[in-house]
Amino acid sequence: MDTVTDTHGAVRRPGPLWIGHTAVDGTPVVTVRGEIDHPVKNKLNQALLSYNGATPPRTVLDLSGVTFMSSSGINVLITAHKSLSDAYGWLRLAGPQTSVLPLIELVGLDQVIDCHPTVEQALTA
Question: Distance from the CA of 40 to the CA of which of 6, 14, 25, 71 falls in 20 to 30 A?
Fold first, then answer.
């Protein structure tokens, strides 16, 4: 588990970022817990774009445990969406909580990347 420290003097308390990988019927599910901000963007990008050494065509990102996301996280999601779409695949978001969903909606990311309440719904959409 990586610990993320806030170097920009923000009031919020930084939380650790944890990333887990599973697969459901061959579709990678990347589960994230904690905060997604600039110091961890490369770790998240790598987790989304590399699955067993290859770029997966389809990926579900479980955001149900994410407590904060900055614009760096949004940029990672856009980059991953573009890379997976270019490979004729997709990225789907699952379970964004009230701490993250307003940002996703504010920037219109939910209009570009399918967003679902649960991992199960994201997998079967």
Answer: 25
